[in-house]
Structure formats: structure tokens, C-alpha cells
Amino acid sequence: MRPLRLPDSQFSERPPAMAMNSPMPSVMDALFAALPSLRGYARALTRNHHDTEDLIQDSIVRILAAVDRFQPGTNFRAWAFTIVRNRFLTAYVRSKRRLVCMDAVDLDNASTAPTQMQGLELQDLQRQFELLPIKAQFVLRRAADEKVPYAIIAKDSGCTVNTIKSRVHRARAAMRKQMQSAYH
To answer: Would 46 disulfide with which of 51, 145, 173, 181, CB 3.0-4.6 Å?
Structure first.
């Protein structure tokens, strides 16, 4: 169960009840003064609003639990920032330890969804490609599969670069038209 979250506006001032019950009112004043900066620092560490709030809540609990270890006269903000950073690093290390080696996982439980549709679509694409004229297949294959620059294709074909660009454009348009007619 998550603790109750109070809006930021309620953290801007110290509640009056705490002034009476707190053994170290100056520490509470310092905590409330540093809270916006701590929240910004936590946001920079986590880069996620929900994780930021969780980190701040956990850090405040730790700060209040360790308030007797704070040495008056030292920099409270630095001490509080250290606690926030340490809580973040502890959570980060803990999350990295949850990763499991695939050798230890039961492969039956780690299955993936079937990919038959992708295979069928690839077969349809191959069939439609083979219906194109040989010159169109050649230009598309060299331009797309082999990633050969248009200038080299033009030199090998004995024509200009603009001619190759036109052939590639027409071959792609023909392929697109064939695929659309096959599925509609």
C-alpha cells in the first residue's frame, strides 16, 4: 500500500503540530525549506514523476528516522541530498539484481507470440517482387538490399543518376500498386 501523497503546496509550510512535537524544530524547518530542491534532485535522478514521489517519500522517512544522527551546525541540505542519492542508488542496484539469466529461466514460460503473419506477409512481398520486370527487380535490389549508391548503379548500368532514380521510383510505385491490389 502506498503512503498518502500530499500536494506540493502543503509541503511549503511546516504544519503547526510538528512544531510542538518535534524534538528538533530547526531540523524540521530545514527539511521543509529543502524539500523543493530535494524533489527537483529526485526528479533529475529518476526522470519519472511517480518514481520521484516514491523516492522523496522514502527519503523523508529515512531523514526523520536518522534525525538524531544529524550534527547541528553542519550542512543539512548536503546531508539530505546524500540520503536521497543513497536511496536512489540502493533502489537502482536492487532493480539491476532482479535481472535473471536466460539460462535459469524455464523456456516454456518465456515463450513469444506466434509470428506466422509476418512470415506470410514476407512471402507475399517476395511473390509480388518476382512479378516485377527484371530491370525493376535489379534496380530495387541494388538500391535497397545492397545499399549501393545511385552513382555506382548508374555507372554499372551505363546511364545517368537521374535515370536510376526514375527507375527506382517507378519500380517502388509498381511494387506498391501490386501490394495494394493483392490486399484489396
So the answer is: 51
Confirm if 35 and 53 have CB atoms less than 8 A apart: no
Instruction: Give CA–CA dist 36/42, Å, rounded.
Output: 10
Short-list 132, 115, 118, CA closest to 177: 132
Could you give the percent of the chain with pLDDT greater than 90? 25
Q: How far apart are CA 143 and CA 19, in angstroms?
A: 75
Q: How far is CA 41 from CA 80, 88, 130, in A?
A: 11, 11, 59
Query: What per-residue confidence (pLDDT) applies to 82?
Result: 93
Cα–Cα distance measured from residue 103 to residue 138, given in angstroms and rounded to the nearest whole number: 44
Q: State whether the Cα torsion 20-21-25-28 is positive or negative.
A: negative
DSSP state of 69: G
DSSP 7: P
Measured in whole angstroms, how far is the alpha carbon of residue 54 from the centre of its chain? 19
What are the pLDDT digits (tens) for 140-175?
A: 888 887 778 888 888 988 999 999 899 989 998 988
How many angstroms separate the CA atoms of 50 and 36, rounded?
16
Which three cell numbers, joined as nine digits, stand for 28? 524540521
Please state the pTM of the whole predicted model.
0.43
- Distance CA(31)–CA(19), nearest Å, equals 13
Residues 50-78 pLDDT 10s: 889 999 999 999 999 998 888 888 899 99
